[in-house]
């Protein structure tokens, strides 16, 4: 792959380098992210140059997420569950029934069904 498409190989290395930043502790992540940003700005691949600019704008928030181990994965999972439930409820004539279905699927309510 290196000989056939050097630009693709460089893009792959950049992608993997950015993934590795999130494996480091906070201090290592600061150093590696700075190194990655310099590399991305010089790589001459337009998409990574743009990504580098976006990461530089949000660098403080990214490093805070690494430092405190915060993620929005749970919120995104609930949002996806709500979207799927709304799709399932397509055709409900009463919006209150749809809201009740969303609350049932996304809440902590356990309904005991008869015979179970």
Describe what you observe in this structure.
This protein is mostly helical. It has 2 domains: 6-68, no CATH class; 73-106, no CATH class. 72% of the residues lie in helices and 0% in strands. It has 6 helices and no strands. The protein has helices at 6-21, 26-42, 46-57, 59-68, 73-88, 95-106. Helix 5 crosses helix 6. The longest helix has 17 residues, at 26-42. It starts with 5 loop residues before the first helix and ends in a 10-residue tail after the last helix. The model has no long low-confidence stretch (mean pLDDT 90).
Task: Sum this structure up briefly.
With 116 residues, the protein is an all-alpha fold. The protein has helices spanning 6-21, 26-42, 46-57, 59-68, 73-88, 95-106. It folds into two domains: 6-68, no CATH class; 73-106, no CATH class.
Which features does this protein show?
single chain; 116 residues; mainly alpha; 2 domains; 72% helix; elongated
Number of helices: 6
Q: Summarize the biggest pleated sheet.
A: none
Please estimate the helix content: over 70%
Element-by-element helix/strand order: HHHHHH
Low-confidence stretches: none
- Please state the CA-atom Rg, rounded to the nearest Å: 22 Å
Work out the strand percent.
under 5%
Oligomer: single chain
Count of all domains:
2
Average pLDDT: 90
Distance between the termini: 57 Å
What is the count of β-strands?
A: 0
- From the spread of the alpha carbons, the general shape counts as elongated
Helix/strand-derived category reads mainly alpha
